């Protein structure tokens, strides 16, 4: 589970520049960069980042799960949930 990389992935999916996340979250670009490279960012950084992305923390945690960890009979539901939670 790498929460920082997941934050970066979601930011890119939403096509948001790192400067925007920094501005909205009230922190520096370098702090956003640190959060996006940390395996487990500090809770405050994670909350600010998620608020700037306009997603719940649960969305980040969901996106850290590898599909090979999901039983085959639930994979379609898992994929749909991952898509829907970012909308």
TrEMBL record:
Domain of life: Bacteria
PROSITE patterns reported in the protein's UniProt record: HTH_CROC1 (PS50943)
All residue ranges annotated as the HTH cro/C1-type domain in the record: 7-60
Full protein name: HTH cro/C1-type domain-containing protein
